[in-house]
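Hey, resending since the last one bounced:
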Amino acid sequence: MRDVKDKMRRFKIIFTIALNDLRETIHSKILLFFVFFAIISFSFGILLGIMSVDNEKRTLIDFSLVISELIALSFSVFSGSMAVQREIET
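The structure tokens again:
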């Protein structure tokens, strides 16, 4: 039982840190850039799917998955580096 309480305490600490970082990220203007880039990329994916002859659905799904993974990766790296920079400055 003690092991479960210890794990829950650790989870609460990690969750609190993640929630605080999410709040700081939402207030930054960089989130708007990533949302704007995502909308443009998905629009391009729809256009690319329309232009493909036989595999519209597959092209759209593949392109959307790749773009969403790249955006998530770049956002997490950039957000992490900004958080480290903020911590170093303070």
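The two ends are 39 Å apart (CA to CA).

Sorry for the duplicate.
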